[in-house]
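Table S2 (continued). Query chain:
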Amino acid sequence: MSMFLDTAKISVQAGRGGDGMVAFRREKYVPNGGPWGGDGGKGGSVVFKVDEGLRTLMDFRYNRKFKAKAGEKGMTKGMHGRGSEDLIVPVPQGTTVKDAETGKVITDLVENGQEFVIARGGRGGRGNIRFATPRNPAPEIAENGEPGEERQLELELKILADVGLVGFPSVGKSTLLSVVTSAKPKIGAYHFTTIVPNLGMVRTKAGDSFAMADLPGLIEGASQGVGLGTQFLRHIERTRVLLHVIDMSASEGRDPFDDYLSINKELETYNLRLMERPQIIVANKMDMPDSEGNLKEFKEKLAAQYDEFEQPPLVFPVSTLAQKGLDNLLEATAELLSETDEFLLYDEADMITEEEAYYGFDGEEKAFDISRDDDAAWVLSGEKLERLFVMTNMERDESIMKFARQLRGMGVDEALRERGAKDGDIVRIGNFEFEFVD
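Corresponding output:
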């Protein structure tokens, strides 16, 4: 069984902020001695950090929930609670993070040491020392800590390679990689010998270097899930140049040009942008009988696909087994890489924008919603309203009165009245119930 894992679904939860404290000091001639309760500490955030030592997402197979610690509660003498440290979650280079609900890309982590705060910790609640006023010098009000963000995520690993080897199974991709790099992929005379991507570094005689990936063989229908194709086609997306390896000896009984068309069709079906990558055709197994004749026929069919204004891909006859023709192939690949910029992996529509990533309250958005439950109770919901409720200490009468004033200021009372709420009706926020007073 392969221990390579390139996708994972996880949940992250940042730490809740610590609750503010209600406390009073002892001081003569001062009501209740004066407020002395400090603020709660900030909850820890969940941070993804790229670790170049990781190669797969295997760690996320056994640990799918990541929860940062909550901040400490406020203390007496006006002292703040200690903020919690961020939870650092190491991820491999090339990890794409998506929102599991919308499918939109949140971030792309490709640089070693790169960090991204994926869930922010809640701020600490204010202690009663913050609510003292000349009219109320000894308030019994303190806030609960703000909840930390929770998110359901999809992680997708796309290997970082400049050059990708594509082609049908058993055309010689793994042999090519093993010959031109120090990589040691498994090589066998049967289909799907390669079941995980292999990566190696190439250094040409001219001194140029680049990363090359040998990807599992594609077959017709790979983009729809046939074979291993749909599992590993994603790894081609980061490459800048494709080496299309073709068995020019036709040892499998297939026509080399049909192979070329079939693989390109699968790439196009999976992601139209893959066809933007420049290709070099590697005519492999030229040491075999019939290869020369097949190559001549292949070039004629290839030329017929292009008009006088278009240039067909370069074709390099090689024998990976005999190690012939490889130097010219690598030099041409390095030259093409130097002329090719990185490709944009995602459209703007696929990315979460800064506006979408803002988790605060926007005054132009609706602050709350009102619905009716089966038992005729009025149900209040909405991000801002629910956040205020969670941060309200319901054990303190003054805090409850403050929350009631906040609801009134948001227009909740008036909205309930317009919807037909009457004196004594039950109003529900989560599991908390109270009576509506007209």
